[in-house]
Here is the input.
Amino acid sequence: MNRAPAYSTGPSAPPARAGLRGIVVPAVVGSVLVSAAAVLFALLPGSLSEARAFQAARPCERVGGSAAENGDCLSTWPATVLSTEARPQGKGFARWATLDPGGDTPPFRVRLRGEHPVWEKLAPGTRVTVATWRDRAVWVEAGKERQDATDRPGPGAIVRLAVGLALLIVGGALLRASAGAHRRRATGAPAARASRIVVPTAATALAVGVAVTAAVLVENVLLALLLAAAGCAAAWAASAWLLRRPARRRTA
Here is the structure.
């Protein structure tokens, strides 16, 4: 006797729900990134303003008045090397050069970053050119080579601003993703589709790119922050619009 094929009359399997891991991991990582960004921003104000001021400094012979009197311009003058010393420090060395500018100015010491390209050429009697800014030696030149001193306001503060913005944006995106996963789990909604992961990720990467570019290229800090915020708003608005398009097509 032939039997009719059996069909399951029970309820279909429910769609996969957002897992607890998809809530906890983004929340923890996002919190760590946002906290790291806060630490970087707390260390920024003084060093960042100094780095920006140094970037805008001009040679003293091109400026006059209060700028030259306050040392906010770059001054260069010749000096003679009296001695050099490399002290072990951590995994490397602290490299010092004692320079004599001659005249009424007493000899002083300059610590150089690394050993290239000037340090390896220094010896007692070597003639060099020293640049100072706000009473600090910022670099030493020997011939056509130049090497920075450790007192030179470098790009470190600007890099910290760029990294801080990147961490803040990525951390905020992860916290937002965690909140969305928690909402889906609480309402019993299915797990997010691939497009809801790919599109926000691309938008976050674009926002990070805009923020880092603004931090590095824009000298005005407030303007850099405004550009970073505008980049985030534009990227995430475009992300939301792209994600809503399929839903609108289905309801049309």
User: Anything to note?
Assistant: The longest strand covers residues 75-89. Confidence is low (pLDDT under 50) at residues 7-17. DSSP finds six helices and six strands in the chain. Strands lie at 75-89, 92-100, 108-112, 127-133, 136-142, 145-148.
